Amino acid sequence: MKKNEKLQILRDLVKINTVNNYEETVAIYVKELLSSYGISSSIIKQAPKRSNLVAEIINNDGPVLGLSGHMDIVSEGDVDSWKTDPFELVEQDGKLYGRGTSDMKAGVVDLIIAFIELSMDKFNGNVRLLLTISEELTEEGAKYLSDLGYGDDLKSLIIAEPTGVSTDSLKEYVNSDGVKINSELKQTLLAKSDLNVFDEQHFIITAHKGWMTYTVTSTGKAAHSSMPSMGINAIDNLVKYYLAEKVFYNSLTEYDEDLGYTVYAPDIIRGGKQVNSIPDKAYLQVKVRTIPQLPNEELIERLQAIINRLNQQPGVNLSLKVEYNECPVKCHNNTDIVEIFQNEAKLTLGEAMPLPQVGVSLGTDASEFRRNNPNLDIVIVGPGNTTAHQANEYVDLETFYNMTDLYFNVVVKFFEKNLVK
Question: Which of 84, 150, 151, 262 could make an SS bond with 145 (beta carbons 3.0 to 4.6 A apart)?
């Protein structure tokens, strides 16, 4: 496929506003695109205007390799903070700007193009393309496809989330609490004499934290603010819990060598409706990033124990509700896919180092596909960078082109190593 054709596909997808919705429009577009190359695909409807897409290349009864990306994007935020229209692909100085270019429509397009080119090649393997809805907020699309069995027979799965970092912010990135990299590898990378020659450095993510969002609600008793003793202030009791929770998280010692510690982030506290009434409701919402050494279910039990203890106090009425619950992911590398990616990246990406291996705090659809296939080998590599979720999000133009070749080459090499003898 010619470069201008590849760019037009990305331009078309950026124009489709899929902020937490409307992925069906993208699914229909992709289905028609694949059909024009003689490839059949299935639109898996999940909700009004929200559909996943699945397509397959099956050449034998051997292992299946998955290619996965999500079609939803985050809000563009304040449009005035953008230098360009967030829903128009704009090329400037070797960068492609637009909402979702980095996270992750460029990755989705690269997977689609590699899939099309594989369909025209005589490689001996089986590939399944999985495009999902609602990854950004809930991972419900991956959950739906996983429960339908689309991940059960996968030997390995490539997820095209953005894994690049601009070289001028590389030191800040590798020293942040969002990434875990081997100290020797980090020193080698930062000591590269030619590092500043390159615009970006891409990594391969082989492990990421799980995550959980939950709400703790405090129920009190309303009263006139002139007679507060006749009520029970829900905010007071929520604060008791909040302080106890902070002590709990600060005391955690569990640690994973690839992921680090559990990351606690209390994000929303609300209570009361008006200033002349004692509030009878208050709540705290938290998102926590989890590690295998403190599994999600055990964490829930410990939080519930704090609530049970506080509820023994007079007037305290606290409750816990877990909204979303995704488990941590660690690559087994039993298919040698990490080495395959690194070897091919030497030839394809032309960066300071060929995909250094890291673990990160962010979550992906991998948690859901792994839930029903716990031995699934998963790696995350994609175009894009840390401008994801920001204004003036962009993807590097050459990386966008090169990543298609990388995916194609990795798939071919994967089946050379993993075909059933």
Answer: 150
Q: For 35-53, what is each residue's pLDDT tens digit?
A: 999 999 999 999 999 999 9
Nearest residue to 155 (alpha-carbon basis) of 69, 54, 64, 68: 64
Higher pLDDT, 232 or 362: 232
C-beta of residue 125 within 8 angstroms of C-beta of residue 60: yes
Contact 314, 200 (CB under 8 A): no
Select from 206, 31, 47 the least CA-distant residue to 129. Answer: 31
> Would you state the structure tokens that stand for residue 91, as one six-digit string?
């090329």
Spot the catalytic one: 76, 103, 110, 135. Answer: 135
**What tokens were used for 117?**
């080119």
Q: Which has the closest alpha carbon to 72: 46, 111, 97, 104?
A: 104
Digit-coded pLDDT (tens) for 92-109: 999 999 999 999 999 999
Q: Which helix (H) or strand (E) holds 303?
A: helix 296-310
φ, ψ for residue 288 (rounded to 5)?
A: -125, 140
Q: Identify which of 4, 127, 164 has the alpha carbon closest to the alpha carbon of residue 412.
A: 127
- Is 135 designated active site? yes
d(CA 88, CA 394): 12
Domain architecture of the chain: domains with CATH = 3-209+329-418 (3.40.630.10), 213-326 (3.30.70.360)
Catalytic entry in 23, 24, 56, 72: 72
